[in-house]
Amino acid sequence: MTSDRLHLPDAPTDLAARLAAGEAVAWSEPVSMTTYEPAAPDPYPMFLDRRVYQGSSGRVYPIPFTDRIAGEGAPRTWQAIHLENRWLRLMVLPELGGRIHVGFDKTAGYDFFYRNNVIKPALVGLAGPWISGGVEFNWPQHHRPATFLPVQTAIEEHPDGAVTVWCSDHDPFTRMKGTHGIRLHPDRAVVELAVRLHNRTSETQTFLWWANVAARVHDDYQSFFPTDVRYVADHARRAITAFPRADRPYYGVDYPARGDGRDRLDLYRNITVPTSYMVTDTRDDFFGGYDHRAGAGFVHVADRRIAPGKKQWTWGNAPFGHAWDRHLTDEDGPYVELMAGVYTDNQPDFSWLEPGETKSFTQTWYPIHGIGPAHQANDEAAVRLDAEPGRIAVGVCVSRPRKGAVVAVTLDDETLWTTTADLEPGVPLQASFDAACEPTEVELTVTHEGARLISWRPRPDHDAPEPRPATAPLPPESVESVDELYYTGVHLAQYRHPSRSPIPYWTEGLRRDPGDVRCSLALADDAYRRAEYAAAERHARRALERLTARNLNPRDGEASYVLGLILRRTGREEAAVDAFAKAAWDVRWLAPASLEIARIDARAGRLAQALDRAETALRLAPDDTRAHAVRTVALRGLGRTGDAAGFLAARLADDPLDQVAQALDGRTLACDARTFIDVALELAEAGASDTALALLAEAETREPTPAGEVRPIAGYHRARLLDLLGRADEAEHARKAARGAPAEHCFPSGLDDHDALRAALDADPGDARAAALLGMLLFDRGRTEEALECWELAIDAGLADPVLHRNAALATYAVYGDDDRIPQYFERAIALRPDARLVYELDQFLARRGVSAQDRLARLDPAIVLERDDATVVYCELLTEAGRHDEARSIMEHRAFAPWEGGEGRTLAAWEGLMLASSRAAEADGDLTAALDYVDRAIDPPPDLGETRIETAHPVRLLTRRADLLDRRGDHTEAETLRAAIPEEEPAEDDDRKVDYFATSLPDMLLFPPR
């Protein structure tokens, strides 16, 4: 369809006057955009524990999964927040993860960030929908798990005239709080990003941060890295090549053999396959992209010591990549992603956030003009200095006005050229002059009012050491030392490895040294996170036994802290206080341990002690929202309401999107329902039980969203809290309400949900709804046998729920393998809801059982299976195998397929199989022309398949088949010419890379892994 162009509204009248006076302004005003709506999320939880996504685990639970997108667009109104100053115009979309959707350079009339004029998601995101364009802020993994979910927002106007749009949410997995502020200043043409990443949990967590910037590209677009970059790497440094000229094959493309400058990776036009490359080392803080046609581009600047990540990604300038472009936009064409990583320089590459810790940082982007790719840049300016024999050219762009700036080129102490100019954003200084000197001997300097803004001396060519590529870890039994076993396990856990577990490494470490502290603690932490509290306690106490065998006062308090968490979870709070108090002897654990003691004291009514401990925690972790809550509640309980009010006001001034502080201040929360539960539980831990109960009751009234359904679990949390308060009758009423609440898309997760559901089953062992919900949480945590027990209990109790029966089928397979109960469970689920996913999953189980294609085909109702692409592909494959080629062709020729990123090839393979089968049938009928036509259609697949062959994948068997048919038809010369052009063999597929980094599809093996 032809898309409407996105119309950006003018600033409201009062803000327009301020804008004209040179101020920065921000306002909220919706926009209408053609939108391709995602389908409703799948009602079934996706337990994709073997899925690989962006190099790490593609586990998606508990996010509801969406795997279909509308084929036609329609106008939709989106909430939008606009920022503008005299040079820049931005638009933020709060309903799509708080991304910057528009970055427009008013001075050049140029979108320096890729503007997608439609919202056209493709199946790229962790949970399905993902859109291209603008800037996506990815954390705690890539792509942002909440990329298609809303964030809470606030507009802040600063005393210096800057404006910030704050966006905040709790990540769907660990519930950490992420806040990013998009800021414009009145006196500079810079997009500033202020980020706070807060671990509001009691456990150590891992995270990454990549700002994913899109830039519109064409043959004359160039990405640029600092001039000292000599090598780049792909994901996990599995492959290395030189930069900018590749010196070896990379992603299957033999760049050095190309010639004619087609070995350069910084030019989009040269890259023909999906390709990532990340800087391995640089001493500079910038990189960016430049549009040579428009004479404009942008730079990103951030402190390389915490923000080392500099990356480019492209789908590739070839039919494969162009197919993905069509999936993601109507008319806005291809793009590259110039991604900036903080606390990370590769993918997958995760860092740590300790309990209560907040990491804060900034990133900046600004437009450049006229000068070409920058040679050096900082927050103040970007410069370029080209020196040829006898001639020097200078280019300077600034990010804010600099009247009377001095630009000089010097050779040692001699000034070769200088000028004084009023530098302005959008108005580059460009000059050239004659000079006889070596290029690396001259230096360009820009000063203003005596202060140096930037300087640059061209670097001489140098040989940098080649980075060492990563290698796969040895099997545990082959690892030499316990030390290496431990750290290999840490690596696998930290990087969320999708196919290798850390557990065998730590277990092997304990086999060799049964008292090893580190392996014991790692296993304690793992068991604790699975809610296997007894096992966790055994491991933690074994670690403490070794630690205190000779020294009752060990230097490291982690073991005592972990034990304290376990004791607290299992109701032994006074013993937990003792463990936390010992952990607090170690300053590294003083803040989190003090916080945990403060919470216990607050719940017990020991408010003075709680206040003291909370203030201790805040001295070391001043941004810990949990300690703020305890402090506020304790101050109020001690009658110091004025102090509490002042403290709360200061907290909200610092973070207007602190939902806990908002609740304590009596404000109505604007967050999602799951965050209501987060806030309620945090307040309950701080002793504010009445407020917590009110918030849980409010959560029980909230309708489901794409983030899921929370009403049942909110009810179970309220019941548990009431039980703890001794209000048994009210607790039973809450459990009854929870059992009757709508449960579709209710996917519990985390230890709090586990404990609430366990409490419900302790109170009523026959609670089928609690058992069904707990089973999902346990299955996701790998506790498959216990999950199956829960689901069997719910089924025996008579719960007629298709999700429950489908889940029981998966668990039965996981526990017992092939079992007659599996098809029975599926058939009951299908009887309750005739659903294409259920039919598809049953068919995939039957395929593994060895049921014939004919029998499988007889079970499939086209009216159902055609609802899904994956089921349709399987159905067409079965039709092909059954010789019903006309039916298969009729379906595949008239359907628009949408692949998953990384899962490309399945539909194409089905098409090739169908065309080859049709070709053989035509040949058998003596129609060689038709046989050739089918082969040609296989070689050149139709666009509606949604995918095509990657550039390096040569269809050898199809070309060979075509040559054979030409021979049979008598066209021997044409056949020999074709054979001479066919590669001797298909390139070997890099199975390891495909499995580890790009297998983001949903093949049926994820649901039924080989046993």
Determine the oligomeric state from the structure. Answer: single chain
Q: Estimate the mean pLDDT confidence.
A: 94
Q: End-to-end span in angstroms?
A: 46 Å
* Beta-strand content estimate: 15-25%
Q: What is the CATH top level name of the domain at 13-225 and 271-368?
A: Mainly Beta
How many beta strands in the DSSP annotation?
A: 37
Structural class from helices and strands?
alpha+beta
Q: How can the largest sheet be summarized?
A: 8 strands, antiparallel
CATH architecture label name of the domain at 13-225 and 271-368: Distorted Sandwich
* Uncertain regions spanning at least 5 consecutive residues: 986-1006
Predict the CATH topology of the domain at 13-225 and 271-368.
Beta-galactosidase, Chain A, domain 5
- Give the helix level as a range of percent: 25-40%
How do the strands line up in the largest sheet? 14-15-16-17-29-25-24-20
Shape: globular
Radius of gyration: 31 Å
| Helical run tally | 32
List keywords for this structure.
single chain, 1011 residues, alpha+beta, Beta-galactosidase, Chain A, domain 5, Immunoglobulin-like, Serine Threonine Protein Phosphatase 5, Tetratricopeptide repeat, eight-stranded antiparallel β-sheet, seven-stranded antiparallel β-sheet, CellSynth/LPSAsmb/PSIAsmb, TPR_rpt, TPR repeat
General description of the model:
- Keywords: Repeat, TPR repeat.
- It comes from Glycomyces harbinensis.
- The protein is of the alpha+beta class and 1011 residues long.
- Among the domains are: 13-225 and 271-368, Distorted Sandwich (Beta-galactosidase, Chain A, domain 5); 378-456, Immunoglobulin-like, CATH 2.60.40.1930; 821-1006, Tetratricopeptide repeat domain (Serine Threonine Protein Phosphatase 5, Tetratricopeptide repeat).
- The chain has 32 helices and 37 strands.
- The strands form nine sheets. It has an eight-stranded antiparallel beta sheet with strand order 14-15-16-17-29-25-24-20, with no helix packed on it. The protein has a seven-stranded antiparallel beta sheet with strand order 13-19-27-26-23-21-22, with no helix packed on it. It has a five-stranded antiparallel beta sheet with strand order 1-6-7-8-9, with helices on one face.
- Strand 16 and strand 17 (191-198) form a beta hairpin.
- Helix 5 packs parallel to helix 7, helix 8 packs antiparallel against helix 9 (587-603) and helix 18 (750-763) runs antiparallel to helix 19 (768-780).
- It is globular and about 85 Å long.
- The model is unreliable at 986-1006 (pLDDT under 50).
